[in-house]
Specification:
single chain, 405 residues, nine-stranded mixed β-sheet, six-stranded mixed β-sheet, 10 helices, 29% strand, binds flavin-adenine dinucleotide
Length: 405
C-alpha cells in the first residue's frame, strides 16, 4: 500500500486523527478494508472529556478499544437537571436514573486524551491500517478515485475519503458541500476538577440564563466541568488565579461537591451549531465535526460522530464484500440517507434547548419548564426519552449493538 517514493494507495483514506477519524479507521481496517489514516500531529492539548453513551461504549468494546481505557472512565448512573435561572417560570429538578430503564449506567465519562490514546494503540495493532503522520494539503476528486496531496509532498489515492478533519474540513470543501450554521453569544470553558465530596456517579447540569454548567463524574473524587457563559464573562473567569477560580466554580456549583481544586489547563470554545447540507457526495463521506458541530448539551457531539464512523464502516465493508465500489454513489447516498434523521433531530433538540435557556421570552421559558415538569411527572415519557437519548431507534448501526462489521 505504501511506497518509498511517498505514493500511497488504499481503498479508503480517513483524513483526520481525532476520535471520530480514529474510530472509523479502526472499524474499516479491522474489518479487512485496506485503509490509510492521514493524521496531522496534534497542535494543542484537548482537555475535554466525553460522556460516551452506552451504544458508543458497546461499539468501542466491539472494536477492541474499550479494554484499553475503561479504567480511566467513570460511570454515569444518574443525570440531574437543575433550573438555576431564577426566572418566574422555573422548572422542577429532574433526575434520570439509568436503573429505571434497566441499565447499569447511561454511559461513561472519559478524558479525550485517554480515549484517543486507546484508539491510537488499537490502530497500531491493525496490519491493514497505514498511518500517515501528515496533513492533507489538497483533495482532488475524479470519477473513479480521490487524490489526497499531503503537506509533506506525498500523494495518496483512494476510492472513498472519510472526512474526519473537523469543523473547518478541507475534504468537505473539496466535495462542494455547504453547511448551515448559527452562532451563539456563548463560550464554553472546560476544566477538570478535584473536589472534597464524592460525586456518587451523578452528573449535574445546572441550567443558567447564559447556558448550562455541567459537572460530569471522572474516576475518584474528580469531575469534568463545562461552564457556558458569555464571551466577556469567559475572559474574566480565565484571568482568575487558581484559588479565586476554585472559589468561583464552587459558588456556581452551589457547593454540591464541596471545596474545588482546579486541575492544570483548560479549554475555551465559542459555541454554535453547524450542520452539513449533505453528509456525503462525490466519494467523500463526512463524519464527526466535519459533518456537524453541536453545543455541548446532553453529550451528543462525539456520540453522533461515533455513529457516523460505525455507519460508514458498515456500508463500506458491505460494499467491499459484495465486490462493489466502496466510494460509489451506492455507498455515499446510503450514508447520507442513514445519517440525516439522527443528526437533524439531535441538532434541532440541542439548538431549541439552548435557545430556550437564552430566551427572555416568558412563553418560551414556560414551555421549557412545562417540558421538564412533564418529564419529571410522567414515568413512561421520561423512560422513552432516556432510551432515545442513549440508543436512537432510527439510526443504530451494527457496532452500537455489539455486532462485528
Ligand atoms: C466543551 C465541549 C464539550 C463536549 N462534550 C462532549 C460530550 O460529553 N460528549 C460528546 O459526545 N461530545 C462532546 N463534545 C463534542 C466532541 O468533543 C466533538 O464532537 C469531538 O471532539 C469531535 O471529534 P472529531 O474527531 O470529529 O474532530 P476533532 O477532534 O476536531 O478532530 C479533527 C482532526 O482532524 C485533524 N485535521 C484537520 N485538518 C486536517 C488536514 N487537512 N489533514 C489531516 N488532519 C487534519 C485535526 O488535527 C484533528 O486531529 C463536546 C464539545 C465541546 C466543545
Amino acid at each position: 500500500m505504501a511506497a518509498a517514493d511517498g505514493r500511497y494507495a488504499a481503498e479508503v483514506a480517513v483524513v483526520g486523527g481525532g476520535p471520530a477519524g480514529l474510530t472509523a479507521a479502526v472499524a474499516l481496517a479491522g474489518a479487512g478494508v485496506p485503509t490509510a489514516l492521514v493524521a496531522a500531529p496534534a497542535t494543542r492539548a484537548d482537555n475535554r472529556t466525553t460522556a460516551l453513551l452506552a451504544g458508543s461504549v458497546t461499539a468501542l468494546d466491539a472494536l477492541g478499544v474499550w479494554p484499553g481505557c475503561r479504567t480511566m472512565a467513570a460511570p454515569l448512573r444518574t443525570m440531574r437537571i437543575v433550573d438555576d435561572t431564577d426566572r418566574l417560570w422555573r422548572a422542577p429538578e429532574v433526575r434520570f436514573e439509568a436503573a429505571e430503564i434497566g441499565l447499569d449506567a447511561f454511559g461513561w465519562n472519559i478524558e479525550n486524551r485517554h480515549l484517543v490514546a486507546a484508539l491510537q494503540a488499537r490502530a497500531d495493532e491493525i496490519g491493514e491500517l497505514v498511518r500517515i503522520d501528515d496533513a492533507a494539503h489538497a483533495v482532488t476528486i475524479d470519477e473513479d478515485a480521490v487524490t489526497v496531496t499531503l503537506a509533506g509532498g506525498g500523494v495518496l489515492t483512494a476510492r472513498l475519503v472519510v472526512a474526519a478533519d473537523g469543523r473547518r474540513s478541507l475534504c468537505r470543501m473539496a466535495a462542494g458541500i455547504d453547511t448551515e450554521s448559527r452562532s451563539y453569544p456563548q463560550t464554553a470553558l472546560t476544566f477538570n476538577l478535584g473536589h472534597a465530596r464524592p460525586h456518587h456517579d451523578i452528573s449535574t447540569e445546572f441550567h443558567t440564563v447564559h447556558g448550562p454548567f455541567t459537572l460530569v463524574p471522572l474516576p475518584g473524587a474528580r469531575s469534568s466541568l463545562v461552564c457556558v457563559v458569555t464571551p466577556d464573562e469567559a475572559e474574566r473567569i480565565e484571568r482568575l488565579d487558581p484559588a479565586a477560580l476554585g472559589a468561583e466554580l464552587e459558588r456556581r456549583a452551589h457547593s454540591i461537591l464541596g471545596k474545588i481544586t482546579v486541575g492544570p489547563g483548560h479549554g475555551a470554545f465559542r459555541l454554535g451549531v453547524e450542520t452539513a447540507r449533505r453528509f456525503a457526495a462525490r466519494r467523500v463521506a463526512l463524519i464527526g465535526e466535519a459533518g456537524h458541530v453541536l453545543p455541548p448539551i446532553g453529550a451528543q457531539g462525539l456520540n453522533l460522530g461515533l455513529r457516523d464512523a460505525a455507519t460508514i464502516g458498515e456500508l463500506a465493508v458491505a460494499a467491499r464484500r459484495d465486490g462493489r465500489d466502496v466510494g460509489g454513489a451506492g455507498v455515499t447516498d446510503a450514508y447520507d440517507r442513514r445519517r440525516r434523521a439522527d443528526v437533524a433531530s439531535r441538532a434541532t433538540a440541542v439548538d431549541l434547548l439552548n435557545r430556550s435557556l437564552l430566551s427572555d421570552f416568558l412563553p418560551t421559558q414556560g414551555v421549557r419548564g412545562l417540558g421538564l415538569y412533564l418529564l419529571d411527572r410522567i414515568g413512561p415519557l421520561r423512560r422513552a426519552m432516556m432510551r432515545e437519548g442513549v440508543t436512537p431507534r432510527l439510526a443504530e448501526p451494527r457496532l452500537m449493538r455489539g455486532e462485528a462489521l
